Amino acid sequence: AKVSGRTATWKLGDLAPGRSVSKIVRMRMRISARGRSCNVATVTAAEFGSRRARACVRTVTARRPVTPVTG
């Protein structure tokens, strides 16, 4: 992936009709992060131009301390 600021870009090349590609992205958030965070994906193809999808989550502060899990 090419990363620039808060954007990661993949060039997937040509895909045959009916084929798909999946990418897994792991992100970290500050423990103090609150509010709404959104992930936006955009795909562009010669046949249909661009399409965009968006998924959002709401982050809240834990009511009690969370013990980190390691290992």
Q: What is the arithmetic mean of pLDDT? A: 84
Assess the beta-strand content as a share of residues. Answer: 35-45%
Strands of the widest sheet, in order across it, are 1-2
Low-confidence stretches: none
Q: Count the DSSP helices.
A: 0
Query: Helix and strand string, N-terminal first?
Result: EEEE
Describe this structure in a few short sentences:
It is built from no helices and four strands. The chain is mostly beta strands. The strands form two sheets. A two-stranded antiparallel ribbon has the order 1-2. The chain has a two-stranded antiparallel sheet with strand order 3-4.
Structure description:
The protein is mainly β. Helix content is 0%, strand content 39%. It has no helices and 4 strands. Strands 1-2 form a two-stranded antiparallel ribbon. A two-stranded antiparallel sheet has the order 3-4. The chain is elongated, with a radius of gyration of 17 Å.
Annotate the secondary structure layout:
Blueprint: E1 2-4, E2 7-9, E3 35-45, E4 49-59
Antiparallel strand pairs: 1-2, 3-4
Primary descriptors:
71 residues, mainly beta, two-stranded antiparallel ribbon, 4 strands
